[in-house]
């Protein structure tokens, strides 16, 4: 039985903490128990969501098979993060030096950076602070726009919900992918995502505009991206001409036509299926391509970017 310790920092985000904790707890329900502890530098930890948490201030004895997780906290910039004592940072270093694993969610990577554990290692964090993390720790190899990284027992993940992906990855490493899949199903997680998948899907990347007509068309495409959706039908659905729809759509999405947007959705879903064992032909059919060669061309074009 391994010991999992969550280091709670003032301002901690509840989902950064609760997501991984739920995954490890669910694994225990399926016969893979872990001792879970919550440690802080003070006994009462305020959270970003105004629900105070009680933490122990003494650390349990940890060995090489044990894990320390640092959930993220609310901060507009990593430089404004809460103070973390030198003794706590030394404990993180010592645990890793003894063969233990250290992980972080979102801004929690800042704690690992202060402890010197990111130097020379691949790491990631929330997309809003990736560039700042790279500036603050130039020896770190910050990988942008991925869900999580694992490098020499230092595991880092992006923002908020990606902590669940990190936990499922660790459960798969410890107990096998079947157990991780069982935990994911029990948690009603749509799919266990690989670390290299993007933090923001195509359904989110092109939604920062304020054009209601385009949002309505995107709603249609998001829901039925695997079906033939012709421009005349889309234009009729939102009550504008084909020419007007194309003009509005390309302006709102930085140059994408509705067809290109639909292809982006199909490509992203196909890549997910392929990463989980599907063949290119099967993935192409699942996302609506009649000819797998179209999917191959889109993947090749993406690889050349």
UniProtKB/TrEMBL annotation:
Transmembrane segments: none
Gene3D superfamilies xrefs: 3.40.50.880, Homeodomain-like
Record-annotated HTH araC/xylS-type domain positions: 215-305
This protein's UniProt keywords: Signal, Transcription, Transcription regulation
Domain of life: Bacteria
UniProt cross-references to InterPro entries, sorted A to Z: Class_I_gatase-like, DJ-1/PfpI, Homeodomain-like_sf, HTH_AraC, INH-QAR
Signal peptide: 1-23
SMART domains linked: HTH_ARAC
PANTHER family: ARAC-FAMILY TRANSCRIPTIONAL REGULATOR, HTH-TYPE TRANSCRIPTIONAL REGULATOR RV1931C
Protein name listed in UniProt: DJ-1/PfpI family protein
Species, as recorded: Streptomyces albidocamelliae
